UniProtKB/TrEMBL annotation:
<dbReference type="InterPro" id="IPR017927">
    <property type="entry name" value="FAD-bd_FR_type"/>
</dbReference>
<feature type="domain" description="FAD-binding FR-type">
    <location>
        <begin position="188"/>
        <end position="288"/>
    </location>
</feature>
<keyword id="KW-0520">NAD</keyword>
<dbReference type="InterPro" id="IPR039261">
    <property type="entry name" value="FNR_nucleotide-bd"/>
</dbReference>
<feature type="compositionally biased region" description="Polar residues">
    <location>
        <begin position="1"/>
        <end position="14"/>
    </location>
</feature>
<keyword id="KW-0561">Oxygen transport</keyword>
<comment type="similarity">
    <text>In the C-terminal section; belongs to the flavoprotein pyridine nucleotide cytochrome reductase family.</text>
</comment>
<keyword id="KW-0813">Transport</keyword>
<comment type="similarity">
    <text>Belongs to the globin family.</text>
</comment>
<dbReference type="InterPro" id="IPR008333">
    <property type="entry name" value="Cbr1-like_FAD-bd_dom"/>
</dbReference>
<dbReference type="InterPro" id="IPR017938">
    <property type="entry name" value="Riboflavin_synthase-like_b-brl"/>
</dbReference>
<keyword id="KW-0001">2Fe-2S</keyword>
<dbReference type="InterPro" id="IPR001709">
    <property type="entry name" value="Flavoprot_Pyr_Nucl_cyt_Rdtase"/>
</dbReference>
<feature type="domain" description="Globin">
    <location>
        <begin position="45"/>
        <end position="181"/>
    </location>
</feature>
<dbReference type="InterPro" id="IPR000971">
    <property type="entry name" value="Globin"/>
</dbReference>
<dbReference type="Pfam" id="PF00970">
    <property type="entry name" value="FAD_binding_6"/>
</dbReference>
<dbReference type="Pfam" id="PF00175">
    <property type="entry name" value="NAD_binding_1"/>
</dbReference>
Length: 419
């Protein structure tokens, strides 16, 4: 079982990985909202919560200050009891530990919301296929999890609490197992993807184009996990930087970050002929084909990747919806994809691209958003570093864009973990 925690962004257009219980969904607290409390802001109020939900929330409230110890203990227990499972995990477990706790928080937040649980953990179950997770692994994981919770939440732990956790875990693991089984009938656990071109756009940003070994259906705005041959079992998420193409090729923008094992390998080591592993497409930062209003897109750095894919997609569908793209970068040189964007702008009168460069080291994107506009009738798409997403979302909300019209990937999944 894989419990979602934080997403380690390794690269530019990446957002971390999903390990056991790792995921990349919209954060329960919403952008800029900080960490959810043990109950979660979107959760059913305690007064209406089921008895099981009250008990699991009480446990999590007790564990918040010792999250690291709980997760370390859990994995230690798991690997001692089931040494064979160690091979399913990456060598370094720091990101993993964080992801486990986040998954627990998600489970707690949605304890009484069967459809949210099915959605979140179904996605997680499908995503776990690429790690080699099997149904028979879940009972051992559950026992170790409950062992860890029992130990660290001793002051509130009793037979009823344990029974509530067993029921919650059983429900979640069944959702994951069922989703993986259903997915197995229609899709591979992973794809092999050969690099067919590798272009260094700046000293630390590369544009990679890969050819999957089988058809790879996805939507513009989505992302996938990638594993390199040099760092087995370390998966990092990268957004597709182009809309689906007739030749089946996929493009990613990767920025090498100093402690990013995967991103550095992809930028400085990878080249044509190398074969990557590619997880299934995921993410909900997509465009509703039935909608017809304007779009305001806010991209920072390699966050331009999914925005460019969305623009290409709209162009291919001849949507003719007004689209404004704010493309932020620290320096002119960092606007590595501006020529393509400006080319799209010339070809499509409905598209406006506005480069926004930092001034005296200070980000200008929020200010630019406030200066132009209004955006209150637009759908907003925000993509880039977590701090930029937070401030971009704040700026948009501040000028009247309702939260349900703002799309972005999960902020905590973007947090750099340094691999
Ligand atoms: N779907 C998504 O959200 C995607 C996210 N990413 C993430 O984007 C990031 C890109 O990194 P870099 O290219 O190094 O970006 P960067 O650090 O060079 O920043 C890019 C832009 O974001 C702005 N920015 C940074 N902090 C800000 C803040 N607090 N408020 C307002 N604006 C701010 C900068 O001013 C600059 O314009 C990575 O963390 C990557 O994981 C990449 C692709 C897709």
């Amino acid at each position: 079982m894989d419990v979602p925690t934080s997403r380690s962004a390794d690269n530019g257009s990446s957002r971390g990985e999903d390990g056991w219980f790792g995921s990349r969904t919209r954060p329960p607290s919403g952008p800029g909202g900080g960490a959810p409390d043990a109950r979660g802001p979107g959760a059913v109020p305690v007064s209406h919560a089921s008895p099981d939900a009250v008990l699991v929330r009480r446990t999590m409230a007790e564990l918040r200050s010792v999250a690291d110890e709980v997760t370390s203990y859990f994995y230690a227990l798991l690997f001692v009891r089931c040494p064979d499972l160690r091979a399913l995990f990456p060598p370094a477990m720091d990101v993993q530990r964080d992801r486990l706790f986040r998954a627990l928080l998600t489970a707690v937040e949605h304890a009484d919301d069967t459809s949210a649980l099915a959605d979140h953990f179904g996605r997680l179950g499908r995503g776990h296929r690429k790690y080699g997770t099997r149904p028979e692994h879940y009972p051992a994981v559950g026992e170790c999890l409950i062992g860890a919770l029992r130990r660290f939440a001793a002051s509130v732990w009793d037979a009823e609490t344990e029974a509530a956790w067993v029921r919650a875990y059983t429900k979640i693991s069944q959702v994951m197992i069922d989703a993986a089984a259903a997915d197995e009938l229609i899709a591979p656990a992973w794809w092999h993807a050969e690099i067919v071109s590798h272009e260094l756009r700046t000293p630390d940003v590369a544009v990679l184009t890969v050819r999957p070994d089988r058809p790879y259906p996805f939507l513009a705005g989505q992302y996938a996990a990638l594993e390199t041959p040099w760092w087995p079992r370390i998966w990092r998420h990268y957004s597709f930087a182009s809309a689906p193409r007739s030749d089946g090729l996929l493009t990613f923008h990767v920025k090498a970050i100093s402690a990013g094992w995967v991103s550095r390998a992809l930028v400085h080591r990878a080249g044509p002929g190398h074969v990557l592993r590619l997880g299934p497409p995921t993410g909900s930062m997509t465009v509703d084909p039935a909608a017809d209003g304007g779009l305001v897109c806010v991209a920072g750095g390699t966050g331009i990747a999914p925005i460019r894919a969305l623009v290409e997609d709209l162009a291919e569908r001849a949507a003719r919806r007004p689209v404004e793209v704010f493309y932020g970068a620290r320096t002119q040189r960092d606007l590595y994809d501006i020529d393509t964007l400006l080319g799209l702008q010339r070809a499509h009168p409905w598209l406006e691209v506005r480069p926004v460069i930092d001034r005296d080291g200070r980000p200008q994107l929020p200010h630019a958003l406030r200066t132009f506009g209004p955006w209150d009738a637009h759908e907003a798409y925000v993509s880039g570093p977590p701090a930029m997403i937070r401030s971009g979302v704040d700026a948009l909300r501040g000028i009247g864009v309702p939260p349900e019209r703002i799309r972005h990937d999960a902020v905590e999944e973007l947090v750099t973990a340094g691999h």
